[in-house]
Amino acid sequence: MTRIPGWKGRAFFFSCLVVAPFLKFLARNQTGVLHPEIAAAILWLVLVCVVLSALARKGWVFYGLTGLCIVFVASYPLASLAQPVVPLSLWLSAVLVALGTGMAMWGMRERFFPVMAVFALSGVVIEAAAHLPKNAAAESVTAGSGGHVLWLVLDEQIGLAGFPDYPECSSARAALQAVLDRYNFTSFPYAFSNYSDTIDSVPSVINSRLLRYPQELIVKAGTGNLRHYRVPANRLFSEFASRGYHVVGYQHGSLRECDAAFASADCRQYEDHLGWLYRAPGGWTERFRWLVGTYQAGDPLLGRIKGFFPFRFGLKITGPLALSGLWPNQLASDILAEPRRSLVFAHLLTPHSPYLFRRDGSIRPLEEWSGDRADERVDPQRYEARYRRYCEQSEYTASQLGSLLEKLDRRGMLQGMTVVVHGDHGSRIRRSLGLPGDSQVMPDVFDYAGPPTLRDLEDRFSTLLAVKQPGAQAPACNLEKHGLLTFLSRAVFGREPADGVDAADRVYLVNHSAQLQPIDILKYWR
Ligand SMILES: [Zn+2]
Predict the structure, then answer these.
(1) What is the pTM of this model?
(2) Domains of the chain by range and CATH?
(3) 155 alpha carbon – ligand 1 mean position (Å)
(4) What is the per-residue DSSP string for 70-119?
(5) Which of 120, 259, 382, 392 keeps 20 to 30 A from 58, CA to CA?
């Protein structure tokens, strides 16, 4: 194993391992390549290849470094590929890749490198071809059977009575109320979620019961640090399936409440495409951090060596941008075309952070919203600024909801439908409590030294709820104060909440012993 190529040849082979995976990532995300931040990222990686080639002048170093790069690049993709058939741990997958690479190098000697190059580069071509932008599907003209149940979860949508008193928020509240009233919904302004994070609240709602401990009804599905979750049990789906409904579930790739275990459901995923970032004006450096951070977070093993970059950026989520291909037009077309009587469940990451949409649907410059996150408390100025942007986004979401309902109504389908719209927790924009270290506290953590303020409880738990019954002739407003489980049990299923009204009308935060600590929110919310 001594005959090795010159430095240009070595740099080329390294680039097949270091640059090609990044090109595949760009193709998957439909970013295009003619942007300064992408050129900068590729240049960095090419520089790394040149450095590696300079280090690998000796045969055994070249073979060794190549093998190491292959282990970092190929282990996670192998584990993901094998997942449906044989669940492999990341480390077992790395051992298999190392063994396979060693054997191939031994058997093929210097022929190994051209074969590897062809393999890596054809992967880029295949990825690019698979993710060419497609034209949006034309709106269907086949009217379905009607009588559907449409169940929309608007992630992070605060309740009508929970909006704070900033002008943008009063405007959002009025817009949301107007849409609900126009289509004869009963609204529940004082509804609140039982939990302040998605991974507890949504599984609890779809299983119609409270949790005994945090994350009881959810399973972490991704390898490493990726936040991928699935919800194995889904009472909502089984109840409707048992009544003869076809079940369709729309979800973000990171949280699967429509699970493969639920065999009769038609699960449809929407994913983030970073290409949508280019709809936001803004400087290239911010976009560079976003691209590289997302790339580094996408592969737990490659992430350990920062994806071959010399710096690390955190993962950011694009929130409502991920919905661009689905909400609201595609969803409306799908419902109109649905031939069977269906429960259509959609968990929508809007008005979820980041707060990037203005009320007219235009996108703010990236710099304004790229720092938005839920795991912190902020000072009063930032609290107000975030709420003003959040409320504009919420108003835009209301107009999208209006547009969906209008499409269904125009085809005469809405009248016979049941429509449930709810949030999964509050806005989670939280003001600093003035306690040491409170800037970095997750929204589900019990961090009160004394009695909580009502405003803080509203920020965490006040959440949207509105229900339109089939044939409803007039809007209504229910001014009672209850948890989501109480209201949904009564308004949709005609029963009392499984855990009793007292327990279902409390809110829960995780205390220092990792247990759910109840708070009697009604004591504060009078
Ligand atoms: Zn949520």
Answers:
(1) 0.88
(2) 7-130 (no CATH), 149-272+317-524 (3.40.720.10)
(3) 5
(4) HHHHHHHHHHHHHTTTS---HHHHHHHHHHHHHHHHHHHGGGHHHHHHHH
(5) 120
